[in-house]
Amino acid sequence: MAGQEGMMAGQEGMMAGFEILDPTVEPRKQPLTYVPRPGSLKGKRIGLVENTKFNSDKLLAKVGEILKKEYGAAGYKMWRKHNSSVPAHDEIIDEAKRGVDCVVAGVGD
To answer: Could you tell me the pTM of the whole model?
Structure first.
């Protein structure tokens, strides 16, 4: 018991000072610019970017079919991101710039 009392006394002294960290930061003020939406999807090539979550590919394929059937889109191409927590990688962006007129990004779950 005597050994424990001495050890506890030493611990009390260690707990006297501690530092509190605030993990919040001011948000960056970054202006967003949006590309104008097309007046119609008729004849447009649609890019679909899915985020690898469960069923996101099925959901976006359905969206692509609806855009073709009901809005006259010429067709669609789907890309898969590396994972759901990152932006679309450069290859997707480069291909989309060259090969589609509009892009839809979607999620699953």
So the answer is: 0.68
